Amino acid sequence: MGERPVAVLAMRDDLVGQIFPGPVLARLTDLVDCDPAAIFTDAGAPPPALAAARILITGWESPQLDAAVLTAAPGVRLVVHAAGSVKQLTTPELFAAGVTVSSAVAVNARPVAEFTVASIVLATRRVFRYAADYRAGISRHGYPVGEDTGLYGLTVGLVGASQIGRLVLAMLADHGVELLVYDPFLTPGQAAELGATAVDLDTLCRRSDVVTVHAPELPETYRMIDERRLGLLRDGAVLVNTARGALVDTEALAARCATGRLDAVLDVTDPEPLPVGHPLLGLPNVLITPHLAGTRGRELRRFGEFVVSEVHRWLSGEPLLGRVNPDALSHSA
Ligand SMILES: NC(=O)c1ccc[n+]([C@@H]2O[C@H](COP(=O)([O-])OP(=O)(O)OC[C@H]3O[C@@H](n4cnc5c(N)ncnc54)[C@H](O)[C@@H]3O)[C@@H](O)[C@H]2O)c1
């Protein structure tokens, strides 16, 4: 295997061991020459191996792949990103040079979708309110009837048929819910194939018991869930945001949650983090988490397994699973 291509890792160095634990690293180094200690993290101090690299394996905190990097790594033909979005990583120069880029965005979508579905289940059971009462010494044991609880029979509206959104749709398919979706790039036929009905955003807000946000942060999505649209939601509706805080008007949402009219689960906020003492942090009907829905901990290994599989596919001439289409980046996360 003397002709194995050289691959260089470009990511935060303390992640390497978790993304490539021993057995995964062994599978990678069966395919390529890769020194896990020679990591490219500082554009001003590239490791010598970069000059011979054909493959860059990037991740969180990789240097941006601009013209200077291409000059330092003239032989690079493949970039495999062991993380989600490549928007901050890639440049027009990289694509113009004909470099193939693959991203583990679909791998990163899974934990976010799992978190979203878990949140929808718990929020529609009003678990956060009941747990807060319990902590406060208020017993609500027993079998209350006629309450606005439970997911079965509700309408769930997804904003953005993204990779995460599509997984959420698939996971909700057998929960006995009606599914609506708003995505300007999705046809009604495509929505139907996903098991959902395509509607405009106002209709989605009016008809949904749960609104879950999965669109990217773009100028046109800034505060798309604004004061007026929050006003379209029914009393008792739940808003779940695992996308980006800027898509929702935080203060308008906080005001509605404070009156108890809406419940919310927010993994992302604007600003992020929320300042200490922000009203949302103290509400019993709101769960705020510190942007933790994406890949973490032992899930990082999935990124490494994805890299090995993509490198193997590329070396075998097979189509890549995570190939990035540069033309789609403008409306992607
Ligand atoms: N909480 C976390 O840890 C975490 C982790 C990963 C991703 N995210 C966020 O989740 C969201 C979805 O990520 P993804 O990788 O699944 O996205 P993606 O790139 O796969 O899809 C984006 C989707 O949004 C649609 N879209 C574009 N403009 C729109 C608009 N104006 N209104 C509605 N839809 C629009 C596109 O057609 C596409 O279907 C993003 O905001 C991303 O930043 C959060």
From TrEMBL:
Domain D-isomer specific 2-hydroxyacid dehydrogenase NAD-binding stretches: 118-293
GO function terms (MF aspect): NAD binding; oxidoreductase activity, acting on the CH-OH group of donors, NAD or NADP as acceptor
Gene3D superfamilies given in the database record: NAD(P)-binding Rossmann-like Domain (3.40.50.720)
The keyword Acyltransferase appears for this protein: no
Protein name (database record): Glycerate dehydrogenase
Pfam family, one: 2-Hacid_dh
CDD domains (alphabetical): 2-Hacid_dh_8
Lineage: Bacteria, Bacillati, Actinomycetota, Actinomycetes, Micromonosporales
Keywords: NAD, Oxidoreductase
PROSITE patterns: D_2_HYDROXYACID_DH_2, D_2_HYDROXYACID_DH_3
Superkingdom to which the source organism belongs: Bacteria
Limits of the D-isomer specific 2-hydroxyacid dehydrogenase catalytic domain: 55-325
Keyword Oxidoreductase: yes
Membership in a protein family: Belongs to the D-isomer specific 2-hydroxyacid dehydrogenase family.
